[in-house]
Amino acid sequence: MTDPGSTALFTDHYELTMLASALRDGTAERECVFEAFTRRLPDGRRYGVVGGMERVLEAVENFRFGEAELRSLSREQVGDEETLAWLRDYRFRGDIDGYPEGELFFPGSPLLTVRGTFAEAVVLETVILSILNHDSAIAGAASRMVSAANGRRIIEMGSRRTHEESAVAAARAAYLAGFTGTSNLQAGLRYGIPTTGTSAHSFTLLHDTERSAFEAQTEALGTGTTLLVDTYDITTGIETAIDVAGTGLGAVRIDSGDVGVLARQAREQLDSLGATGTRIVVSGDLDEYAIAALRAEPVDGYGVGTSLVTGSGAPTAGMVYKLVEVEGRPVAKRSSHKESRGGGKGALRRHKSTGTALEELVYPTSPGHAPPQPGPHDRFVPIPLMRGGQRVEDLPGLEDNRQRLRHALVSVPWEGLKLSAGEPAIPTVFPDVS
Amino acid sequence: MTDPGSTALFTDHYELTMLASALRDGTAERECVFEAFTRRLPDGRRYGVVGGMERVLEAVENFRFGEAELRSLSREQVGDEETLAWLRDYRFRGDIDGYPEGELFFPGSPLLTVRGTFAEAVVLETVILSILNHDSAIAGAASRMVSAANGRRIIEMGSRRTHEESAVAAARAAYLAGFTGTSNLQAGLRYGIPTTGTSAHSFTLLHDTERSAFEAQTEALGTGTTLLVDTYDITTGIETAIDVAGTGLGAVRIDSGDVGVLARQAREQLDSLGATGTRIVVSGDLDEYAIAALRAEPVDGYGVGTSLVTGSGAPTAGMVYKLVEVEGRPVAKRSSHKESRGGGKGALRRHKSTGTALEELVYPTSPGHAPPQPGPHDRFVPIPLMRGGQRVEDLPGLEDNRQRLRHALVSVPWEGLKLSAGEPAIPTVFPDVS
């Protein structure tokens, strides 16, 4: 966030009532370990993609209670005087380890480990989960779309289908996952993501004729632009487009109808007009399956909206943030449902000598446990993100993490990249802890 | 938004390239009418609920390009000098009419009508749709949950499952739709929505025993609080809860398992302990169907998370923003798919003398058309929201609009309130325009 605004009230009420109770009986200062993980991947997905970790760190840094926040809490009687005084001085001073953005994750992967006092770590729960659940949901869906696009350009254009701020985060997550760019201008300003766009049907309708619209657009944006040819009749639209812009026209866009059939017809028409270099961009209710189905068609680029920003059927990643250790002692809920494994955890991803991932070994890090010995092709997945409340220096950036995902996907067993529903690409293994 | 930040870059790139092209050929100043509507309701829903209209007006007012925004556009070469100069002076000066929040809508209902020059109206498209699509999706789902809860308390607690800013808007939309309150503290600060919460499993796990956790909580929050009794064994948890807090304990919460069965057992146990006034609150993956299924169980309140903030299967409302009139002349896309009806429109909701809604009459308002004559029980749905870029005075507020929805639902034919999939509760009728 470039907005320096406080993130402190992106928080559930009960985090602060727990804080008030724990301050009162002294348990607030107990050293704790909280862990974010997901119990399952959505809808038969084969892998998850970590999104939002960088935004999590910013949110932790900006988790400060200013006067407006404190006044609101006081007015709503959310905390007593002692609690409000504690919040006034709040800043996170603990340690955070986590999976970097662009990393794959699986059920039970210890995505984020927060170490600190109960008080300082519990209050971060809501905003950490909001970010991880949203951004990872989008990154996971986006990665499948990028795989389906198979190297063709793919643009994120779903801003209008989701909350205005989610849209910016979604554009970022899509870019992380390999999208070429976004329509969202704020994502360009905030994160330096390439933005792109040319015109909508309204621009054609505004003009007296399609021809005059195309003339205005090529006049302003050059003949390398993309003309939207499906406002009236597509065949006429393409003919007019080439007539106006010449055979050097950058691209035509088709936004409706059976885009596979229409793309083939458009390619034939463009070629027959001599516009063999004019690309064909399709959009309109595409998801990963529709993109995959167009693989054999002469499509040069995809614009993806609704399905991207809604996580293509899985709008949230199902992550939870659980207390797993108190003063070095593993703790876990023990009732009949939603059980968790107690104790802090690390993760070692094991690979064959070919580089193909074999399993996610999730091992205990609580006192008395030694980490496993990595083989020559194995690697520990979490990295240090914060120490003593300070962000670790030289953390990988968005472009690094974009590369990371590309490499990680190469390591997945081939069945793991299938779009169809199935088991996770690699199993998560929890060694028996004696 | 209390944040005075600019909304100007919550905008698709192509809005500004269209602007640049239209400024160049002079069409930018043509008087236009844009209309927001949805072609269909999601998933067999019977009605939609307008959410976000108030946020739309704020976004329009805050749609200003500051130096940071202009620098970003210049750097990315989104617009030429003329375009940037025009944006520097931008403010919306046109008129807006729309369905107030809490109003029902149906396929084709003219939810929002923006009148102004092409230039000033087209640039608002993205942010208007982001807000309406998100907030109406949540309000629509929330309304069904409130109906299913049938008068019992229902609390929104899904912040952690969605983007941190969406969470605030979702809490607002849920409250609009009749939720009792929210866990989201920012929604309390920003919109004055009642916030609520007590404790999570982590609070019990932090303590050496469940008893000491309950003691700490009742000490800090009083015996009117809600104790979470399912961290270990529910029967023991309830026994301990009453032992600690006495029979005046406010409530117990059950967050996992077969909550219907557990609620019945809990009620029996509480009654046998003499805690006949202690309420039972259930949470954990509830949606409108689960809530309805609990109607016969001794449940006093519901906490709803994931399904609320994700629109219970319909995370976006499918609204579009279409140019329908240019200089008084109706315009519409004419290719084979996604057709629209040209021309500005009004809506008259017709009712029987009993007050039951009959149909949504969507009639043309473009030059040469007279509005229909309302019968004694009919009413025009859209209201003026902005005139000359200024918000109309004394617009209804959140509490008014909460009442509005309650009244509107009473007017729906009874089949229209069923949770099962089906046709819209009333048909939308477009008179033949000769």
Question: Short description, anyone?
Answer:
Chains A, B: Residues 9-133 form the Nicotinate phosphoribosyltransferase N-terminal domain. Chain A is α/β, with parallel strands linked by helices and 434 residues long.
Q: Helical segment tally of chain A?
A: 15
Question: How would a textbook summarize the main sheet of chain A?
Answer: 7 strands, antiparallel
Strand order in the sheet with the most strands of chain A: 13-12-1-5-3-17-18
Number of domains of chain A: 2
Structural class of chain A comes to alpha/beta
- Chain pair with largest interface: A-B, 105 and 105 residues
Q: For the terminal residues of chain A, how far apart are their CA atoms?
A: 44 Å
Task: Please identify the oligomeric state.
Answer: homodimer
Low-confidence stretches of chain A: none
User: In CATH, what is the class of the largest domain in chain A?
Assistant: Alpha Beta
Helix content of chain A: 25-40%
State mean pLDDT of chain A (0 to 100 scale).
Answer: 95
CA-based shape of chain A: globular
Radius of gyration of chain A: 25 Å
* Count of beta strands of chain A: 19
Proportion of strand residues of chain A: 15-25%
The CATH superfamily label of the largest domain in chain A reads: nicotinate phosphoribosyltransferase
CATH architecture of the largest domain in chain A: Alpha-Beta Barrel
**Might you state the CATH topology name of the largest domain in chain A?**
nicotinate phosphoribosyltransferase
